[in-house]
Amino acid sequence: MESKEGSKKIVNGFKKTAKYLRKPEGLKDIMQEATESFTEHLGEIKDQSKEYLGITKNLTAEQLGNLKSEGLDLQKIFKSKDFVYYKTDAIA
Q1: What distance in Å separates the CA atoms of residue 20 and residue 54, rounded to the nearest whole number?
Q2: Domain boundaries in the chain?
Q3: pLDDT confidence of 35, banded at 50, 70, 90?
Q4: What mean pLDDT is reported for the chain?
Q5: Rounded distance, CA 74 to CA 86, Å?
């Protein structure tokens, strides 16, 4: 019996919400709350994005530096006529 009563309460809650949303002021209130919530968190999102962009930029610069160094090493190897063992920590 409790589950039927619980289900009825949930259905009644949905019905009340639906009636509230049919009213223009109800929808306006919800839109206003959503806008305020988004605006509050927009600064945080912007700050986190800048932080992650900075991290990504630094990692990319480091990786490009490594690639350039390895490329120069390979260039030296191919120009020389001696056999050279080339060791790298690259993961493919």
Answers
A1: 45
A2: 2-79
A3: confident
A4: 79
A5: 8
Average pLDDT over residues 43-67: 89
**What is the reported pLDDT for 83?**
63
Strand, helix or coil at 81?
A: coil
Half-sphere exposure of 54 (CA within 13 A, CB side): 6
Q: Residue 77 corresponds to which tokens in the numbers above?
A: 């190897």
d(CA 10, CA 17) in angstroms, rounded, equals 11
* C-alpha–C-alpha distance, residues 46 and 52, integer Å: 10
In the structure encoding, which two tokens stand for residue 85, read together?
């063992």
What is the rounded CA–CA span in Å between residue 92 and residue 76? Answer: 22
Give the Cα separation of 74 and 66 in Å (integer).
12
Higher pLDDT, 46 or 7: 46
